Amino acid sequence: MTRIPNHPPAKADIAALKARAKHMRNHMLVMARGPGQGYIGQGLGIADVLAAIYFHELRWSPENLTDPNRDRFLLSTGHYSIALWAALAEAGIFPLEELPTYGADDSRLQMSTLDTTPGVEIIGGSLGHGLGQGVGMALGLRLQNSSARIFCELSDGELQEGSTWEAAMAGSNFRLDNLVALIDCNGIQADGAIVIDIEPVADKWRAFGWQVQEIDGNDMAAVVAALEQARATEGRPHAIVLRTKPGKGVPTLEQREKAHFVRVEPEEWDALILELEGQP
Ligand SMILES: Cc1ncc(C[n+]2csc(CCOP(=O)(O)OP(=O)(O)O)c2C)c(N)n1
Questions:
Q1: Within a domain: residue 67?
Q2: What CATH number is attached to the domain comprising 253?
């Protein structure tokens, strides 16, 4: 089988990955400034994980987005699209001039994913379906003797949906060690805090037969190390419980109580971009 080169990945350059994440955060603010609003809180929170995935772990090629042997990153939460657009723009798939069209009629960069946008593997607008699709893809790849892997992001809100747990059960039943769940526990769900208590998250995944790690999802070195450990897992799927901070990297947004959907005045976006620039 054809192998996409550079795998297993070379030793991670943590400083370079942090710089990627910062560029991606900047892209997200530029996107949201276009319409004056967007799902920026969770996007900023997951930026470090997407930087580690797209610029270190994933075996893929921006020149051939449909290579059958590519690793797939599935964004189950379609409304986090701003983070995916930022990663794909940073990888050169979209010109940066396109970013301000975020959410506009006819834009490729919608506020929730469309599968007509290059680089999108699944539509995630209706929550709770990403992991089930990931299980099906991982099983299909194994049946085709492919060494490609599936990385499926999902949210803490989606842990309140039965379909997620059906998929978790199937993943361990089929011993899918080519499947990694990246669970974004940012503690929010639309209007405020998580509605139904989902803790202890890690223990629940262990009980479903998954190998589990729980880390600070905004600590780049920890994210890279967790992905490396997931690569070494054999015989069962792997879950990484990511504790992330909504608005991460932009202090005003980190302090904001309602960070699910952010709308601010046009001049305030410029101030937020300057705040990001001032961060390490
Ligand atoms: C099946 C389904 N139910 C409800 C919604 C509406 N909805 C969109 S985002 C959201 C919040 C979900 O919380 P979480 O996934 O944790 O995301 P966060 O608040 O961190 O953005 C909801 C309920 C949806 N998109 N799909």
A1: yes
A2: 3.40.50.970
Helix 40-52 and helix 81-90, axial crossing angle in degrees, nearest 10: 40
Tokens representing 126?
Answer: 């209706």
Atom of ligand 1 nearest to the CA of 112: 25
Please give the tally of structural domains in the chain: 1
Best CA proximity match to 237, nearest among 123, 163, 139, 154 = 139
Atom from ligand 1 closest to the CA of residue 157: 16
User: Does the beta carbon of 155 lie inside 6 Å of ligand 1?
Assistant: yes
Task: Answer whether 157 contacts ligand 1 (Cβ < 6 A).
Answer: yes
User: Is 162 inside any structural domain?
Assistant: yes
Average pLDDT value over all residues in the chain: 95
What confidence tens digit (pLDDT) does each residue in 23-77 have? 999 999 999 999 999 999 999 999 999 999 999 999 999 999 999 999 999 999 9
Distance (Å) from CA 190 to ligand 1 centroid: 6
Share of the chain above pLDDT 70, in %: 98
Task: Tell me which of 125 and 110 has the higher pLDDT.
Answer: 110
The Cα–Cα gap between 100 and 263 comes to 15
Ligand 1 neighbourhood includes 153 CB (under 6 angstroms): no
Residue 2 lies in a domain: no
Instruction: Specify if 81 maps to a domain.
Output: yes
What is the SS3 assignment for 217? coil
Q: Supply the residue whose CA is at minimum distance from atom 13 of ligand 1.
A: 189
Residue recorded with tokens 């049946």: 143
Give the domain extent around 252. Answer: 14-277
How much is the pLDDT for 151?
98
pLDDT digits (tens, 9 = 90+) for 212-268: 999 999 999 999 999 999 999 999 999 999 999 999 999 999 999 888 899 999 889
Element (H, E) at 213: strand 211-216
Ligand 1 atom closest to residue 156's alpha carbon, by position in its atom list? 16
